[in-house]
Design goal:
- The protein has one helix at 3-41; strands at 63-65, 71-73.
- The chain is mainly alpha-helical and 95 residues long.
- A two-stranded antiparallel ribbon has the order 1-2.
- The chain is rod-shaped.
Length: 95
């Protein structure tokens, strides 16, 4: 190969790398622009009702969606089974 051919290939490789960097930068920038819009479209969480429970108090009735997609109420299990409710405050929030 001649020196000119080697230089041309190096220049072409540099141009390709620059093009890839610009593409990655553009996609990242567009992702950042769309992020506030996605947050604005999210539903606001329902207001939290404050209870003043103490150790040993019965839990108030509440309704949640199960991992199978059905609706489950705590009162459905009252007197039938032992229920352990574990709440992970920051689960799935990124916080």
């Amino acid at each position: 190969m001649t020196q000119t051919t080697v230089q041309n290939k190096k220049q072409e490789k540099r141009r390709m790398i620059k093009a890839i960097h610009l593409l990655v930068l553009a996609v990242s920038f567009l992702g950042l622009l769309s992020r506030p819009t996605a947050r604005a479209q999210q539903q606001q969480p329902p207001p939290v009702s404050h209870t003043f429970l103490k150790v040993g108090d019965s839990a108030p009735d509440f309704t949640l969606r199960s991992d199978q997609g059905t609706t489950v109420k705590l009162s459905d299990f009252r007197g039938k089974k032992t229920v352990i409710a574990a709440f992970y405050v920051l689960a799935f929030t990124g916080g």
